[in-house]
Amino acid sequence: MDLKLGHYNKDGIEVVDVEGEIDVYTAPRLRELLIDLVNKKNYQLVVNMEKVEFLDSTGLGVLVGGLKRVRAHDGSLDLVCTQERILKIFRITGLTKVFGIHDSVDEAITARKAEK
Amino acid sequence: MATVEVTFTPLPAHVRTARLVATAVARRSGVDESLLDEVRLAVGEACSRAVEAHQKHCPGEPIRVALTDDGERFEVVVTDAVPADVALAPVGGNGAAPGAAADADGPAPGGVVLQLPAGVGLAVISGLADDFRVSPDGDGTSVAMSWKRRAASA
User: Fold this and answer.
1) What are the angstrom distances between the C-alpha of A63 and each of A76, A109, B36, B98?
2) Closest by CA position to B78, among listed B124, B135, B11, B38
3) Of A80, A101, B129, B150, which residue is least crowded by CB atoms under 10 Å?
């Protein structure tokens, strides 16, 4: 399955919906979208990965790159993911300590608002 | 002789094909269903790494994936044509799959280092496979990984 991307604003936070496979072939599209959102001054991001079917280290690199970019503007990049097969690569690489990982978009937004 | 062998040109689009074939052969070989996602991810990491190495050093050479079921273990060997000393050096800045490194290097404000560790792709494989080794193979490098078959599989 290819990669489908969408985004919308909710309560001042830009939510990125990702569906499909994030790998060496498709990850550049996600990277371009994250860069574009940051260039348009969206510094509070939530990436919804509930419909992601595959994620490799290329995808992790793109997410880490996005986090780096928003943090340069005192922003945030949180993830929504409950799938064990996707969470596994975050655990193996230790990135569960770097990203805020939530069970739902609403929970991610609520947690982010509470930190402000 | 491998049960199934796949050869592909070093393009990112073909990594998905290699993953799908590896997963299908693993299932057919009796690898437990719960491990198929691990096979898929590990093979994808090895192929992504090989694609990056080939694109840098020998874009005209194919990458070989050999899938072998020896009755007890399911083994995948991804062989590239890049000399071991070159291929084993950090690629893309940190050894991650292509794109991972280029987008993630350097410190972020606030003193947090946002950089994937060197060789993260290989590290992921080592965390997924029952057995894992990287070794010279002729003029290239092979990344081998294996999983135990189900005890009672046919």
Assistant:
1) 11, 18, 24, 13
2) B135
3) B150
Residue A55: pLDDT band (50, 70, 90) is: very high
* In this structure, CATH architecture of domain A4-111: 2-Layer Sandwich (3.30)
How are strands ordered across the β-sheet holding A44-55? A4-10, A13-22, A44-55, A76-80, A100-102
Shortest alpha-carbon distance between residue A5 and chain B (Å): 18
Cα A16 to Cα B135: distance, rounded to the nearest angstrom: 40
pLDDT value at position A56? 96
DSSP code, position A72? T
Give chain B positions within 8 Å (CB) of A24: 12, 15, 44, 48, 51-52, 97-99
CATH of domain B4-103+113-148: 3.30.565.10
Q: In this predicted complex, what is the ipTM?
A: 0.90
B112, B114, B126, B143: best mutation site toward chain A, by most A Cβ within 10 Å? B114
Would you call A12 an interface residue with chain B, using a CB distance cutoff of 8 Å? Answer: no
Q: Sign of torsion, CA B62 B12 B123 B57?
A: positive
What global pTM score does this model have? 0.87
Q: Which two tokens stand for residue B148?
A: 């135990």
Kindly list the domain boundaries of chain A, sorted by start residue. Answer: 4-111
